[in-house]
Structures are given as structure tokens and as C-alpha cells.
């Protein structure tokens, strides 16, 4: 099942497959966002000894986010009078497109991928930098000081944290010798001892360096997605809600969707690059298809993101920069140099 | 930190280490940051499995203490019409209209065995203005006015909160009040010299059958609002 | 006119139009934001010419770095939105000299370059670029990194407050 190749199965031209896949991705992201918001509410509730939504839809209030989404779609789309109308309208699309574009290169199965670029990981880094532009645009166009502050903070932190993210993602690339997501996945099938087991995943490959890289990536990705403890761009207590303060209705929904899509994306990247993506942890579990493993791993990481959010307080701006430049960056650099040296020695 | 934990009786889970060497200190700091995050996550994890404190309100309710003051209720059969509650109520929201029975008319006994001396022609409480002070409950000699455990009596309009507890319809009220007034007028006409204190009234502090108590105002007692 | 030609025309036009907008827009922020489309157009052109690594680098460096810096600069400058951008020309003849020579050089370059007509097959370029950078052009590569380090140190020196001698 994990060897299922949709191109061969349906004998489709690649363009059709990509269009279909784009539709699937949009639908998936929407459903995931609904689910993730629900999960977030439940997790926050139970972390605080509450219950969260319990009424809408009956059992455990499962339909609450669906109702909220419908409400959001029916809301009036307000553009502030003094806002920069053109940029205000354009910004959500840029953010949304930047987030969604990344999904094209995330493999859900060994053959189930939008397009297997041979610069896959690099493409992800490139596209996620355009999100910053959209955020700055939104913050500026809103003509609101909270939005502008949020946008500036967001941009500053995303630009800074891109460096540890890039450096820690480079370790699997060094070990694989390729930037393609499929190559990285396949390289985790075998390596040490028996093939097909979880200890071949990159997180366990060169202990403790790859483990440190994974943790670094995960933490830095929290900053990239503006989540606690690095949620200063949205700090409700200071900035209302950051760069999308002025947005309502469908445009707000797009930002929201992009945010939750981003959560999934960073989790998916981490699980592909470090946790073997669609690979089963042991050969006798191969009968479970790859996409399920992929989703499972990503969802566990999403759960950890939420878990962290309801555990840690928000850091200050200077602490944020301190963590990035004085802790993550040196660690990532040392990691990188060690692994690079090992790879060179190993190849000789 | 450690002192605080000991003071709070919490176990010291982690002791901060220090080093002279800045690089080792850096590593220790990073490790401590990482470790304390794990500790925090452990705390959150334990909370996931605690029983939530939430009470699913409309489906389940907390036990409310017996003495809680939630809604004034009148057991109109027990009420003797003494007007104590009306007088004490700081909000002035109790309107009682009593009327003496005409001669030969016997109103029977109340459930507590006392004689029923007056028609309680009207007993209106404007619940929207109640302070829940409980004074009416305290002063009532017959335990006729008391608090009941009912706190959900929201209505669509304020008028619906003005409740008349009397068993008399407005017509009956007007009838008994008019009859009492007529009898009194007749008595006064026959014996003009005698004051009206010779009535076999069990509660002598009650003035003449108060046909109209002016204490019931639509608005709260204003700035000049003295107690009656 | 196959798919590739249409794509090249489209992205070329996008690049040129947005670049024109950058130059002539009265609002400096609009210029900055329309640079986004210029950079993307150029990246797309690279992509069509099967230089995928270069395209991604273009986006990372220009969009993720330089454009953000420009926008930051614009946003952090007080009252820049009300700024009247002066568009008057002075000393035309002196200006004509360098501009004309650059233009002439470009035209000559276009005319005399032996443009490869056949597009290269879409093959991975990352490894080739890496090897070239580290082996063939290592001096240029290292020199530019030294330059960058110097710029970084200079920026730190400038950014630090003047009178604190005893910074650890
Ligand atoms: S509780 Fe207080 S305010 Fe309410 S009716 Fe009784 S005396 Fe009046
Ligand atoms: S104090 Fe009691 S008995 Fe007297 S009028 Fe009020 S409710 Fe009736």
C-alpha cells in the first residue's frame, strides 16, 4: 500500500494529478484546521482542568468549530476606512498561498506527493519566507498600531528563526545528499542494523546530534508559526491579536487557515525529515499505509505544539532574540559542523 | 526558586548548578532551560488527566447551601397580613393589600392553626428589584415569606417578574376592599366618638384595613426614599 | 508557441510591469511591495530555464532577506508615507553618458551573445552548483563570505552604543 503510485494507478498526465492534488490539499488543510482548532480547545481546556466545548453537535461538542467556521463565513467583510484597501485585500492571499504552496512538496506516502522537486526542502524554506511579506503587508495595510507592531515582531522573529531552522534541516540533507523530500524519506529506510526499523530514522541516526537538530527545528518552528512560547506577534494581552487584528469574515478565516496549515506544515516537515515520514516504525507494521503513519506522526507533533502552548508562558522580545542568536544558532552551527565532518570522514 | 519551593512545601526537583567556566555555564543554562520545560510539560500532562472542575451547568448543578438567598416566595395560606415584610423591605417592592372581613364572615384558620383575620387581597412582589437581603424572611412571624432554591427565573420582560401571590383575583380584591370600606364607613357613621381600636384584631399594631398601601412604587424609593 | 514560451512571456511581462511599477509608483511602500512580484517573476523565469536552485535562492535571498529589509526600513522611517518622491530631471546630458553607455553595452550583449536555443533538460543543479562553488570558484566564494563577515562585524560595531567601553 505504501508503494501505491497514483500516477501509474490512474494513468493520469502529471498536470491533472497536480491539479487534483492541489484540490485535495486545500480540502485537507480546511478539515485539518477545523480539527486542530477543536483539538486546541480541548487540550487547553483539559490542561486547565476545564472541559472545553461540550454542547454543539452532541458528543464532546465536536461540531463547535464547524459552527464557528460557518459563522465566520457569514460575517460581514469589513475593511477599515483608513486602511490601504488594495494591500489589505491582497495580504491574506499571499499568506495563504505561501503556506499552501509548501504543501506541494510534502510527501504523504512514498509516492504520494504533489511534486517531488529535487530542491524540495530548499523550496519550503524559500516559500515560507514569502509569508513574512504577506504578514508585513497585512500589518501595514490595516493602519492599526497593534497590527503593525504584530507584523514587525512577526517578521523579525521569522527572519531570525529561519537561520536555526535552515541549519538544523541541513543535517538530514547532508546525511542524504539530496534536498528532495522523497529521497530524504527513502534514505531513512535503511542504514544501521536491520532495515525498516525506526532506529533508521534520522532522529536516531547520529545520536545525539540529529536528536538535538530535531529539537532545535521543532522549537524554532514554534517561532516560525507564531506559537507560544514565541507568540509575541499575536500576544493577546498586548497586541489584541497582532497582524490580523483588523480582519474579519472570510479574510480572517484565510489567515486563520494559513496559521493552522503552518502548524501542520512544520509538523509534517519535522516528521518527514527526522521521523521517517510515511515509513512504518517496524517492518511488520508495513500493512498500515504510509499516509496514515505520516498523519499520525504529524498529529503527534501538532499535539506537542499545543501541549507546549499550554505549558509555557510567553517570552519577551529580547529573550526571544537571545534564545535564537545565543542558544539555537550556536547549537545548530556546532551540530552542523560535526555532522558535516562525520559525513566527509564517512565517505572517505 | 529552591527556597520558594521549600516554603511552599513542594519537592525540590532540580537544583541549579553553576560553573566558573562560561562555556560550561552556557551548557548548564541550556540544559536547565530544556529540562525545566520538560518538567513543565510533565505538570501539564498530569493536569490532562485530572477530573475537570467544570460543572456542566444546565445538565448538572452544584448543591446550593440551604441558607442561600435566591428567590423570595410567599406561602400565601400562612400569611396573616401583618405587613412586617412590607415595612422592612429596603427596596419597597412588596405590595400588600389587606381587608377586614365584614361582620359575620369567618375566614377560617390558617395551616399553622392561627385564625385568619384578614383578607390578603393582594400580595405583589416585584422580583426584579429584590436585593436578596432576606429581611422579609427574618421578620415574618408566620414563616409565610421565605427563600426558595430557585435562581433561574429569567423572563422576557420586567413585568413578568412582578408576581402576585394572592389567591384573590383583581375583581375579588376590589370587592373585599370595597366591602370593608363600606362597613367601616357605616360603623363610623353610627359611632362617631369611638376610635377604631376596639377591634378584636390579634395584631394591634396594624392600622385600619389599609385599603391602599402607598409603599408600592413602580420605581425604587428615590433620593428622598425613607423607609415607610 | 508551446507552454514554455507562454510561461516565459507571462513571467517576463510580470517582471517588467512590476519593475516599472516599482520605479514609477508615487508611494514608496507600493514600490517595495511590487518588488515582490518582480522577484517572483525572475524566480519563475529561472525555474522555466531549469535553474531550480537559482530560483529558490532568488526567492530566499531577495524576498526573504532584501525585500523584508527594505520594507522594514520603510516602515521604521517616520512619516515616510507622506514623502513626496521628487521626480525631476537635472543635468540630463551628464546623466545620459553613463546610462547610454550601460544601455548600449546591454544591447550589444544581447545582440552578440550566442543564446542557446535548446532548453536544458530539467535536471538537478544543486550538486553541480555546490561543487563549482567549493572547487572552481572557491576564492570568489570565500572572498564574498569574508566580505559578509566584515559587513556583519561593522554592523555590530555601528549598532552598539558608542560610549560603553566595558561591554563584556
Ligand atoms: S429579600 Fe429583601 S429586598 Fe427582597 S423582598 Fe425580602 S426584604 Fe425585600
Ligand atoms: S410578614 Fe409574613 S405574615 Fe406578615 S404580611 Fe409579610 S408574609 Fe404575611
What does it look like?
The complex is a heterotrimer of chains A (348), B (228) and C (168). With 348 residues, chain A is mainly alpha-helical. Chain A contains 13 helices and no strands. Chain B has two domains: 2-48, no CATH class; 71-187, 2-Layer Sandwich (Alpha-Beta Plaits), CATH 3.30.70.3270. Chain B has five helices and five strands; from the N terminus they run ααβαββαββα. Chain B has helices at residues 2-7, 22-48, 84-88, 135-139, 170-190; strands at 71-74, 94-99, 119-126, 145-148, 162-164. In chain B, the strands form two sheets. Chain B has a three-stranded antiparallel β-sheet, with helices on one face. Chain B has a two-stranded antiparallel ribbon with strand order 1-4. The relative contact order of chain B is 0.16. Chain C has one domain (3-89, 123-166): Up-down Bundle (Four Helix Bundle (Hemerythrin (Met), subunit A)), CATH 1.20.120.1200. Chain C is built from six helices and no strands. In chain C, helix 2 (28-48) packs antiparallel against helix 3 and helix 5 (126-136) crosses helix 6. The longest helix of chain C has 25 residues, at 52-76. Classes of the chains: A mainly alpha (348), B alpha+beta (228), C mainly alpha (168). Chains in contact: A-B, A-C. The complex binds iron/sulfur cluster (2 copies). One iron/sulfur cluster is lined by residues 74, 79-85, 96, 139-140, 142, 144-145 of chain B.
Amino acid at each position: 500500500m505504501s508503494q501505491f503510485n497514483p500516477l501509474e494507478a490512474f494513468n493520469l498526465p502529471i498536470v491533472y494529478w497536480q491539479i487534483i492534488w492541489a484540490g485535495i490539499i486545500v480540502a485537507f488543510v480546511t478539515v485539518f484546521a477545523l480539527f486542530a482548532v477543536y483539538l486546541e480547545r480541548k487540550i487547553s481546556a483539559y490542561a486547565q482542568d476545564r472541559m472545553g466545548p461540550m454542547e454543539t453537535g452532541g458528543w464532546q461538542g465536536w461540531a463547535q468549530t464547524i459552527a464557528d467556521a460557518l459563522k465566520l463565513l457569514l460575517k460581514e467583510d469589513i475593511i477599515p476606512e483608513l486602511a490601504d484597501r488594495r494591500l489589505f485585500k491582497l495580504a491574506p492571499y499571499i499568506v495563504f498561498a505561501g503556506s499552501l504552496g509548501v504543501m506541494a512538496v510534502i510527501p504523504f506516502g512514498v509516492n504520494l506527493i504533489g511534486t517531488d522537486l529535487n530542491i524540495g526542502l530548499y523550496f519550503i524554506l524559500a516559500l515560507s519566507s514569502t509569508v513574512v511579506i504577506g504578514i508585513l503587508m497585512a500589518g501595514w495595510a490595516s493602519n492599526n498600531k497593534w497590527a503593525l507592531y504584530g507584523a514587525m515582531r512577526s517578521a523579525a522573529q521569522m527572519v531570525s528563526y529561519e537561520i536555526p531552522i535552515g541549519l538544523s534541516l541541513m543535517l538530514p540533507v547532508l546525511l542524504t545528499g539530496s534536498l528532495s523530500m522523497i529521497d530524504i524519506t527513502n534514505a531513512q529506510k535503511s542504514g544501521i542494523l536491520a532495515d525498516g526499523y525506526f532506529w533508521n530514522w534520522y532522529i536516531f541516526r547520529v545520536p545525539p546530534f540529529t536528536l538535538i537538530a530535531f529539537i532545535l527545528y521543532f522549537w524554532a518552528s514554534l517561532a516560525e508559526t507564531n506559537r507560544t512560547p514565541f507568540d509575541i506577534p499575536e500576544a493577546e494581552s498586548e497586541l489584541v491579536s497582532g497582524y490580523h487584528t483588523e480582519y474579519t469574515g472570510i479574510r480572517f478565516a484565510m489567515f486563520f487557515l494559513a496559521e493552522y496549515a503552518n502548524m501542520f506544515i512544520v509538523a509534517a516537515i519535522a516528521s518527514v525529515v527526522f521521523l521517517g515520514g510515511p515509513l512504518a516504525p517496524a517492518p511488520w507494521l508495513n500493512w498500515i499505509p504510509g499516509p496514515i503513519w505520516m498523519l499520525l506522526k504529524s498529529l503527534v507533533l501538532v499535539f506537542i505544539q499545543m501541549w507546549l502552548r499550554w505549558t509555557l508562558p510567553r517570552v519577551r522580545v529580547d529573550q526571544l532574540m537571545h534564545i535564537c542568536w545565543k542558544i539555537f544558532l550556536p547549537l545548530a552551527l556546532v551540530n552542523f559542523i560535526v555532522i558535516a565532518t562525520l559525513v566527509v570522514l564517512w565517505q572517505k | 526558586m529552591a527556597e520558594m519551593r521549600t516554603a511552599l512545601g513542594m519537592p525540590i526537583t532540580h537544583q541549579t548548578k553553576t560553573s566558573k567556566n562560561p562555556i560550561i555555564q552556557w551548557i548548564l543554562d541550556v540544559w536547565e532551560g530544556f529540562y525545566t520545560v520538560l518538567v513543565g510539560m510533565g505538570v501539564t500532562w498530569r493536569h490532562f488527566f485530572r477530573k475537570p472542575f467544570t460543572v456542566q451547568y444546565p445538565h448538572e448543578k452544584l448543591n446550593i447551601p440551604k441558607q442561600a438567598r435566591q428567590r423570595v416566595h410567599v406561602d400565601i395560606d400562612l400569611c396573616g397580613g401583618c405587613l412586617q415584610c412590607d415595612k422592612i423591605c429596603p427596596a419597597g417592592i412588596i405590595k400588600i393589600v389587606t381587608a377586614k372581613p365584614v361582620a359575620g364572615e369567618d375566614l377560617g384558620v390558617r395551616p399553622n392553626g392561627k385564625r385568619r383575620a384578614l383578607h390578603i387581597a393582594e400580595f405583589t412582589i416585584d422580583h426584579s428589584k429584590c436585593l436578596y437581603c432576606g429581611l422579609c424572611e427574618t421578620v415574618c412571624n408566620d414563616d409565610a415569606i421565605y427563600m426558595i432554591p430557585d435562581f433561574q427565573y429569567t423572563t422576557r420582560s420586567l413585568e413578568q417578574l412582578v408576581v402576585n401571590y394572592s389567591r384573590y383575583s383583581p375583581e375579588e380584591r376590589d370587592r373585599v376592599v370595597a366591602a370593608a370600606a363600606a362597613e367601616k364607613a357605616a360603623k363610623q357613621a353610627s359611632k362617631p366618638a369611638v376610635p377604631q381600636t376596639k377591634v378584636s384584631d390579634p395584631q394591634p399594631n396594624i392600622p385600619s384595613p389599609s385599603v391602599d398601601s402607598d409603599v408600592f412604587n413602580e420605581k425604587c424609593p428615590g433620593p428622598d426614599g425613607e423607609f415607610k | 508557441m508551446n507552454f514554455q514560451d507562454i510561461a516565459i512571456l507571462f513571467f517576463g511581462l510580470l517582471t517588467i510591469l512590476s519593475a516599472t511599477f516599482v520605479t514609477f509608483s508615487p508611494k514608496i511602500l507600493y514600490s517595495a511591495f511590487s518588488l515582490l512580484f518582480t522577484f517572483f517573476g525572475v524566480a519563475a523565469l529561472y525555474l522555466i530555464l531549469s535553474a531550480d536552485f537559482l530560483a529558490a535562492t532568488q526567492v530566499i535571498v531577495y524576498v526573504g532577506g532584501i525585500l523584508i529589509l527594505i520594507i522594514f526600513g520603510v516602515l521604521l522611517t517616520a512619516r515616510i508615507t507622506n514623502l513626496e518622491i521628487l521626480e525631476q530631471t537635472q543635468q540630463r546630458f551628464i546623466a545620459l553618458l553613463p546610462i547610454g553607455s550601460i544601455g548600449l553595452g546591454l544591447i550589444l550583449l544581447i545582440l552578440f551573445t550566442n543564446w542557446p536555443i535548446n532548453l536544458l533538460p530539467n535536471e538537478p543543479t544543486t550538486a553541480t552548483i555546490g561543487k563549482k562553488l567549493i572547487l572552481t570558484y572557491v576564492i570568489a566564494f570565500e572572498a564574498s563570505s569574508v566580505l559578509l563577515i566584515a559587513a556583519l562585524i561593522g554592523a555590530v560595531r555601528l549598532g552598539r552604543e558608542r560610549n560603553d567601553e566595558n561591554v563584556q
